[in-house]
Give the backbone structure.
Amino acid sequence: MHSYPPAFENWWIQKACKTLACREIKDCAKHLENDIQHLSDLLTTERSLSFGGYAGDERSLLAYGLFFFPQTFARIQFPLLETILFHGWNPPDSRPLRILDLGAGTGAASFGILHLLQQENPASPIHVTAVEQSTPSLGILKKLAADQASEYPNASFEFRQGDLVDFSSWLQPDDPPWDIVVLSFSLNEAFFGSARSVIRGWLTELAGRLSFHGIILITEPVLKEDNDRLEHLRDALVKDPAPPHVWSPCPHQQPCPLFSSNRFTCHEVRNWNPPESLSLLNRHLFREIHLLKFSFLILGKTPAPKPSDPAQVRLLAPVTQVKGRLITAGCAADGCRHEYELQTRGMDRPAIKQLCLLSRGDILHIANPKPVGSHSIMRIPDAAAIRTMFTLNPK
Ligand SMILES: C[S@@+](CC[C@H](N)C(=O)[O-])C[C@H]1O[C@@H](n2cnc3c(N)ncnc32)[C@H](O)[C@@H]1O
């Protein structure tokens, strides 16, 4: 996980200070608090057919840039890291990597991907095609790309204004296939009120535009309506042998046990380090800015490179210590949601502490858990039965 670069933070601060005629970010904060509050409600609780309209308002764009851009930048790196570190996906090494950002806004997701990939492979060329309906957002993205060009010398950008739903409005006949297609919090807006079959059909067509090893990264807000849309899509995809194929978050290709239970939503809660300006803007808003909450799908043109391990479990909760036990919950390779417990008797403190560092979204190999009584609790025989397959937490 890479921290939010000061170059972006300063760019947005300077833009806000200039637009709002303020000397420092704390003066801007007073002007922008209502806009951030409003935008936050629009993006996390309220929904209306016109909610995309915020992209036309200058203060909303500043609020987005200072408050949400850093979160998007960091958030997209979680599924990307899972794609690379867990699934073993590699960018092509014989030609530039091609990224398509649909509903790019001011480009936070593309920059997050670019930043992570260029830190890993500084010499690899990357081409980003950004598709966005809003003229002001696209204008900011163009300026940002030009101003940050020295930070990303191997990156090139192309900007297209269009309706992402309508391929004919942005796709060009000679477009080569894409390696990474990203839909960061844009699917729900673009397909608001659309029939599920329409989204499914659109996604099939999109998968046809992927390179052989191409992937689609979708992140969405944790809202019931958006979650239901994503889960329906996910359940339809796992039933269908045609691309795209579901790589994550599921350790199985069966119906989602969380969705069918109607009690739980499949989503991530990840820790990160918000930049200082974001903390300052949050002083009177009291949002949980150190947590990134989102739903996501990683989809591939081909099935996931390695088949799911029968003992694989994706954590759906942190590991908590209660009365002589460590408890958590997870989605397992058998297609079920289970609660897990491990008795701490005989375990030393460092071992307990280590397990308590695991968090929601981490992927474990849990050998031989046994059901306890008639409940759906699975008892893990001992700490040695747990092996971490994927975590982004500090060791
Ligand atoms: C919540 S913003 C996310 C922006 C950016 N992807 C990010 O994560 O920061 C959603 C974006 O999708 C764009 N959008 C919504 N519907 C669209 C459509 N049908 N075609 C193109 N862009 C669309 C909006 O204009 C807005 O910029």
Remarks:
- The first helix runs from residue 6 to 20.
